[in-house]
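for the recovery benchmark. tokens below, seq after
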């Protein structure tokens, strides 16, 4: 299966039923780290694996275990990218180093997808999810967004900061864009599709955590990691609900 066909099909699955999206950040002692977004659509495979298999035809008869970079995908779509504006091309270039891993098995009722990249400083991740929504601009992919239709494009600007003493995740809502979306009838359909989906944040730090501003944060035994679960509806409609600060022990 071609990279773009596989990715497009994966995004389609993400829009159909309940999925769990997990945003992972691991920060090392020197400030470098890894960022990833995982999507678990196994619930859909459990409910409709046979129907999905028939849509995929011959590809459904074999398990898929695929790993590729967006750089490879962009090479496949280079003609379409060349027609895009310089600004859009620049946005896509930010995604080149992302590695996409997909595991799908109709027999095992499994569908897992991960987009991951390394970073030298957490500040590099500013608006990374919104940048990923630039994939929608690729020719022939009007309804395709990373990990599902419109994923990442929740009408906010997301930033991360970390200085060794404090970590902050902050989304600033574009109220004008959000108002426009709420007027769009497609928004109701999108809300319905993601009503039973969850958005989970899992962050791992090199220091013990003193406190987190979100009272629902769960700590690991060593207090160096936190997990916070939200509804996907909150992620899309109230992205500032996912804002929080983490303070570390000295």
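predicted aa per position
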């Amino acid at each position: 299966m071609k990279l773009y066909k596989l990715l497009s099909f994966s995004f389609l699955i993400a829009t159909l039923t309940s999925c769990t999206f997990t945003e992972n950040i691991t920060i090392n002692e020197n400030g470098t780290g890894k960022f990833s977004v995982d999507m678990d659509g196994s619930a859909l495979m459990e409910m409709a694996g046979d129907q999905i298999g028939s849509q995929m035809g011959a590809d459904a008869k074999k398990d898929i275990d695929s790993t590729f970079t967006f750089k490879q995908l962009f090479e496949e779509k280079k003609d379409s990218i060349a027609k895009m504006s310089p600004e859009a091309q620049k946005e896509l270039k930010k995604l080149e180093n992302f590695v996409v891993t997909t595991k799908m098995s109709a027999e095992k009722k499994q569908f897992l997808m991960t987009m991951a990249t390394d970073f030298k400083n957490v500040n590099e991740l500013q608006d990374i999810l919104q940048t990923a929504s630039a994939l929608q601009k690729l020719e022939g992919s009007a309804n395709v967004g990373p990990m599902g239709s419109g994923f990442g494009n929740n009408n906010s600007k997301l930033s991360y900061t970390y200085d060794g003493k404090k970590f902050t995740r902050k989304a600033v809502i574009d109220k004008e864009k959000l108002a426009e979306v709420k007027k769009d009838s497609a928004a109701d359909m999108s809300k319905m599709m993601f009503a039973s989906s969850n958005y989970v944040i899992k962050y791992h730090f090199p220091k013990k955590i003193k406190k987190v501003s979100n009272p629902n944060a769960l700590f690991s035994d060593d207090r160096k990691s936190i997990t916070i679960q939200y509804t996907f509806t909150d992620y899309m409609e109230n992205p500032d609900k996912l804002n929080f600060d983490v303070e570390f022990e000295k």
